[in-house]
Amino acid sequence: MKLSKSLIAGVIVLSTWLSCTNTTPFATTSSSADLDSLVHQWLNQHMDSLEAGATRLQSLAATPAKEAELRAAFSDCRRLFKQLEWFSVYYAPATSRQLNGPPLPEIEVEENKMSDPAGLQVMEELLFPYDTSASAALLKEAKGFISSLIPLRHTIENTRFDTAHIFDACKMEVFRVEVLGISGFDTPLCGWGIPETGVALSAVKEMMAFIAAPDNLLKRLDRVIAVTEQATSPGEFDYALFMSQQLHPLSAAMTDWFYSAGLQPIAYPQALKNTARTLFDSSAFNTAYFVHNADAVPTPEKVALGKMLFYENRLAGNGQRSCSSCHMPEKALTDGMPKNTSLDGSATVLRNTPTLLYAGLQQAQFYDMRSPTLENQVLDVLHNEAEMQSSPEKVASWLNQEPALKSQFKAAFPDIQDTILPRHVTRAIAAYIRELHPFRSNLDNYMRGDSNALTGQQKKGLNLFMGKARCATCHFMPLFNGTAAPSFATTESEVLGVLVAPGVAKLDPDMGRYTHTQLEGLQYAFKTPTIRNIAKTAPYMHNGAYKTLDEVMEFYNKGGAAGYGIDLPGQTLSADPLHLSEEEKKSIIAFMESLTDH
User: Fold this and answer.
1) Are residues 338 and 426 in the same domain?
2) Which pLDDT belongs to residue 29?
3) What is the domain count for the chain?
């Protein structure tokens, strides 16, 4: 979207005014007490600026002012928030969602309730495009935004800042801008993601100076920021180059400095290891973070047992089906069928078989997300009459009759006294699945510095994936599923409006998550699966109705169900056509083919 000259001028003037009110110099620090004091001072000063900016927006909304003036004030609020994002999202994630969360209802399945969206992204929808009839709603959101700043101030007051946590928050912000910032995840309509990335990284630079980062590292940050400030439209921005030659060397340099300086990292485990230099490091993930029981943490012994069971036909009640019957290694652990045949051969299973690769690095299993853990998924499949028609108890029974296997289980699970229990069965299989994350694709090699690992067409496809096609706003790197870095705390679902067949303007009747949780926002909602290895996992979608990636691309290009004239009020996929050319669609497909593990 092009901005008018008057709007651009307004943004520049107001931004300059605000920056001029926020020029108090800060020195680096040599003691923990000094650091804590400096960070508090910095945060309070920036909070004052953000509150002033939000108050100005509220005043303009109450007038109401003209569109250009409102958008300029909104732009400043966003930029002022981005200066605080490294702190806000890290130290106060719930408050941050109120300030800049997705413009969709927040669904809490456990409490069986929905909360209305709020914050900057909601305001964006009211301003792009703007209608004076929306002024009351905009005023309400501005007031709510100011109210949400109160708990953020409380967080500042009640937090003691130290080097380890500030560094971790800064590093997570670098990862966050790579996955969410530059893709325009939270700026889908105004398109300010790239310049706002520079704002966020400028704050990171100030914090790194506070913790005495060396001058060469601060200069590297300056170079990265300078790229975001170049006058380039989102459609011309080279995301591939920016990530591989700017952001990754930056996060790697930050990590190398931290450890070479002998600093101690935070003690508690996170999804990413403290030592991860980039999001695409082959061993970046801490698998144990995704495990809900200490006894379920994978070990070589558990993984070996799980692999044995995965290929064992005796898992099924009739002794004729194993996990690998539907999850074949040569098909990236799928089966190549729209829907597999039920155990007795009389029908098909409910949905298409998803890959198990990278399944251990997400927070929900199955298309309808009904299982929070892999252990629960294994239990569900074993009990399912159409799939296995068995149980962990039955599997444990025959395992206990084989001394060699019983001895191996005892070695893997020290808590076993004399008998293999059902939970040992599910945990062994889950341990094997958790280790199925090879990260050995051409895209991984490219992100690790091999500039020749992608073809020119694939690089163009990556840029389209991140930009014009907006694929990366749902399929988050580096997993390319609905589990977003850098926290990987939640796995998202989307309402796409999948059709019964490509090009047929009829909605598939499967209600998805709504089947198990009767909340309106979950009608036709399905987990966003990984597209890693997608070249091997046809057919596609939960119903397996899409045979080719060309058919999938055309569905998205038209705007999902809405693009086919179907009224689906809860559709979370943008109804706007992407206007991708045939050449652009082929480039995106070529990029997705680069996600195949070797």
Assistant:
1) yes
2) 53
3) 3
